Structure of Methionine ABC transporter ATP-binding protein:
Amino acid sequence: MTRVQLIGVGKEYPARGKQAAPVVAVDDVSIDVASGEIHAVIGYSGAGKSTLLRLVNGLERATSGRILVGTDEITNLPESRVRVVRGGIGMIFQQFNLFHSKRVAANVEYPLIVAKVPPTERKRRVAELLDFVGLSDKATAFTDQLSGGQKQRVGIARALATNPGVLLADEATSALDPETSQEVLALLKRVNSEFGITIMLITHEMEVVREIADRVTVMDAGRAVEQGDVFDVFSNPKTETTKRFVATALPTEPNAAHLEELRRRHRGKLVTLTFRDGDVDQPVVFQTIADRGVGVSIVHGGVTDVGGRSFGRLTLELIGDDLKIEHAVAALAQHAELEVLA
Ligand SMILES: Nc1ncnc2c1ncn2[C@@H]1O[C@H](COP(=O)(O)OP(=O)(O)OP(=O)(O)O)[C@@H](O)[C@H]1O
């Protein structure tokens, strides 16, 4: 169980060439990852996510701010001590980074050899880890005989070998198909819940955050532009960046073009209702409409899960005479967040 704190962290790369300006890859980012938490950092390409991860594992030095991994302030430590701290950090990668010339068991054993763990203990630990990731039967296979999902499971077993307090995941499921991604994310959830390992992951995929994270930081152009509980951030996005991510995975209001199309097909009044975490009783909503003598059909949207809580956005067509619809809208507004689509 390890807490990871980034306090006003910045990373600037020097200018290359005479005309070029320095690149500010990470700009004044603060993230407090509680021990045992799964924290996702999401952003588009170039947002600074990978740089941030390299600062946390001490592969690069921050130009400003402080980073603490547990009680070790790695931004202050000499390189020899940073290496020791890195021993308590597991890493998994998009391209798995396995040794292709070694068998599965040898890949998992490698960090134990580096850590000078005695052979019998190593064998026991490797067997235990392969069992945990469900690959006991692949111990003697070469890694290029494995599927992508199996390779990442080897990566996870290897990362866990030395009992790290923190696991850093760099786009760990980006190279995998959706179903395999789900399996790997489920395994990471078990890593977190069974061993209490803090997980910090970077991704450009909203699905990953939705599936696994407790809290999220949204990065854009090196800065942390939104941060908080996954449900709070995504059910009420404030910045354009977050809104774009939300639109890829959560039910939204129809966009302008879609609204035109809906208008053409539906003559009634269109309204969008937002349901947050069961704070709206759906039967009451539909009863309210029926009680006013108004017909209803769902024309867009849905209900889904985010951060383990339900979130819904439904666009409804209200059908009936104008006055009744007006009353129904007024009554609905008492029960739910409602927007009339003008
Ligand atoms: N070693 C480096 N030298 C100079 N500039 C760098 C270096 N590493 C990263 N950058 C720059 O820093 C910015 C952030 O890059 P970074 O790779 O951290 O973003 P990212 O969000 O991880 O994107 P991606 O998912 O595409 O890797 C980019 O503008 C990139 O060009």
Residues 13, 23, 25, 43, 45-51, 204 surround adenosine-5'-triphosphate (CB under 6 Å). The chain has a mean pLDDT of 93. The chain has two domains: 4-249, 256-340. The longest strand covers residues 295-306.
